[in-house]
Amino acid sequence: MPAAKIYKTLRFAERKMASSPDLASLYQLLAKQPTPILPSGERRAVLGCGYVGEAVARAWKQEGHELWATTTRRERLSELSELADSPLIFDSTDSSTHLDFVADIDGILISFAPSKSSVVDLTQYRSTFLGGMQRLIETLDRRSHNSPLQLVHLSSCGVYGNRQGAITNETAPTDSEHPVNQVLVQAEEMIASIRSHRIKVCVLRLGGIYGPGRDIPAMLLSAAGGLVQRNGLNVPCWIHRDDIVRGVCFAFEQGLNDTYNLVNDTQLSGQELTDCLCERAGLPLAKWMKINTSDRVLNARVSNDKLKQLGFTFTHPCMVG
Ligand SMILES: NC(=O)c1ccc[n+]([C@@H]2O[C@H](COP(=O)([O-])OP(=O)(O)OC[C@H]3O[C@@H](n4cnc5c(N)ncnc54)[C@H](OP(=O)(O)O)[C@@H]3O)[C@@H](O)[C@H]2O)c1
Q1: Nearest protein Cα to ligand 1, atom 46
Q2: Which atom belonging to ligand 1 lies closest to the Cα atom of 154?
Q3: How large is the average pLDDT for residues 281-300?
């Protein structure tokens, strides 16, 4: 927003404040004004503005950046227009959609995920992650802009697979057996391949996401007294959506250019975590299986030390309590 317009907005607010001593109505009024883009404001894009993407877009808007945000669904465009200056349709499987707008952008969050089906469909995983990444890379290849670009790609700690509960940092080998993990690792490698002196690529490997509307503790509690058809000895990892937003902002502030685990401190097995939650709620414990089913398994005590050593802190360090 030009300085003259910011000045006009502030003068308008001042006049209103003089005529209304009610601060609450002033805040309401300011909330209706377009957010001024700060002199430091950048041009940023959220590719796949879903559960996490939306929360990041909200934070970036608050920071005063100019925003592009993509969805695959036309019906979401009006909702996204509340968050982004330019809501757009991008679907990696639809060649009539494109990412040309990234040509002169300063920062990109890659947060697309196959959201069309509740079951894991490998073809969809490939077309979303690999197809989406390919389309992005091709577009960035054509970028004539010489300014620096920061990319943050949201990957998953699922890539570590079954490490028998071992402490696992970013140097641990990734699982090459499960086809979903192969896709996720390949997507990481594709985006890392475009690192250059102008392009920084930060890969954040997330734990299972929880937060508003995704109440994993409540879901685990609903198993109280019942039988869970999963191996309770496996150790998953978790991250609250607020801490993902903080992690993405941290990556941008620090100009991160490497791979980091973004998980909270909870390193309990599925059964230990559920027992803990049930005991606190005074509910009967759930029974778990002690062998793996054919499901994709994460069984690793994933370390977040690398990010913490850079000064990153969590608002939700623990899943219990
Ligand atoms: N969920 C977890 O527990 C978890 C764990 C580890 C890592 N992650 C990663 O975290 C990131 C964010 O997850 P989330 O929960 O925010 O995902 P989400 O809510 O499912 O949002 C996914 C976004 O990707 C878009 N999308 C779907 N198919 C696409 C395609 N073919 N081409 C382009 N865009 C497409 C969706 O479009 P619409 O707006 O049309 O739906 C949506 O905006 C993802 O990269 C995911 O892999 C998630």
Answers
A1: 113
A2: 45
A3: 92
List Cα–Cα distances, 49 to 70, 76, 297, in angstroms. 6, 10, 27
pLDDT (tens digit per residue) in 90-126 = 999 999 999 999 988 999 999 999 976 777 789 999 9
64 Ramachandran zone, left/alpha/beta (phi>0; psi -120 to 50) = left
Alpha carbon distance 308, 315 (integer Å): 13
| pTM, full prediction | 0.89
Residue 111 Cβ contacting ligand 1 at under 6 Å: yes
Atom of ligand 1 nearest to the CA of 111: 45
Residue among 285, 261, 263 at smallest CA distance from 273: 285
- Ligand 1 neighbourhood includes 52 CB (under 6 angstroms): yes
233 lines ligand 1 (CB under 6 A): no
Burial letters for 35-58: b for 16+ Cβ neighbours within 10 Å, e otherwise? bbbeeebbbbbbbbbbbbbbbbbe
Tell me the one-letter amino acid at 243.
D
Nearest residue (CA) to ligand 1, atom 45: 111
Q: H-helix or E-strand containing 162?
A: strand 162-168
Q: What is the pLDDT of residue 7?
A: 44
- Give the whole-angstrom CA distance, residue 276 versus residue 282: 10
Which pLDDT tens digit goes with each residue over 142-169?
887 778 999 999 999 999 999 999 999 9
Q: Is the CB of residue 107 below 6 angstroms from any atom belonging to ligand 1?
A: no
